[in-house]
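Hi everyone,

Forwarding the result from last night's run.
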Amino acid sequence: MKKKILITIDSLTSGGAEKSLISLLTLFDYDKYDVDLLLFYQRGLYLPLIPKEVNVIEPPGFLKRINKGMKSNLVQGDLKALYLRMGLSISCRNPLMTKKYHGAQIIYKWLSKGIENLDKEYDVAIAYSQGMPTYYVSQKVKAKRKLAWMNIDYKVAGYNKDFDIKYYNKFDKVVAVSHSCKDVLIKEIPSLENKVEIIYDIISSKLIENMANEKGGFSDEFDGIKILTIGRLVHQKGYEMAIEAAYKLKQDKINFKWYAIGEGKLKEKFENMISSLGLENNFIFLGTFQNPYTFLKQTDIYVQPSRYEGYGLVIAEARILQKPIVATDFTVVHNQIIDGKNGLISQMNSDSLYKCVKRMIEDENLQNYVCENLKKESPGTEEEIFKIYKLIEGK
């Protein structure tokens, strides 16, 4: 008899966890497992990529009701949803709350009072990211075995550990996507030490190489240096440093365009910054794409200016396509990049980032050396799925 598996995640927008989940689902053994996928918000770039074997189930009814907004709740006389929505709104504007708790913790603190338990019982329930999926699986799902994924630097992300402990204690295992993620989590919540396992994000070299060879990519026929950054337009990804570095490259009269693939709440802020620095023709937001690998293949240099990452999935993808990489010195970057050998690591500021990017542009010998070293690496992690199977089977 097939085991019944539940996997939960917020949505399938263009983040690293979402991309990793799609890779996992693509490789999953559906002869052994029936998989239900619960998305709290049924939207995202990767929705069309969900394998047909996966059963996408409806999010909790209360969550759908509250997402209609306070006006709709009032018109429909849904007083409970109205009350909790108002309480959530007030809390999210309270600096004492936002300073003490992560946004996901504030949201769940209110919505958990209305969200229903899931009726179906599972052999294994997986929360594929921290925050809402973890809290929901911990409290609202019946399963013989529960697994939670940790794909960020837990301390830097700003979660209140006292709030989280009671939820993580209900999981059989917590999966960290890197050694650094594991070390940080255990340091913050020592009681989890015997529960934490390391499983890298699923990355398929063959899939990425095949997708990179499809039609698409840059359409502006620019023949100068193409620089690319992929990541959501949020504080974590460090776009301010990238824009300031681009300004300094322009001051040096380097013929380049710096492209960014991603969307996010800070897009307007970054666009204003670009405009104020006169970079409209040099720093370009392309939007999001189901297949960003055609762009990655056609770029000259890949830059990851993040403040923190759980693993750095796009760096691994750039390594697969053997692209010269420049990345900031976030904690886990050293898991993938050896400075001066298979890429360059800059300090966490725009001046250092500018100097590293400029060096990579101007030093052809360095570019060739980095690319030759990347050819010798094997960044693909398809075999990690067997570790997931072991956790599912309780081995």
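The domain at 214-375 is CATH 3.40.50.2000 (Rossmann fold).

Cheers,
N.
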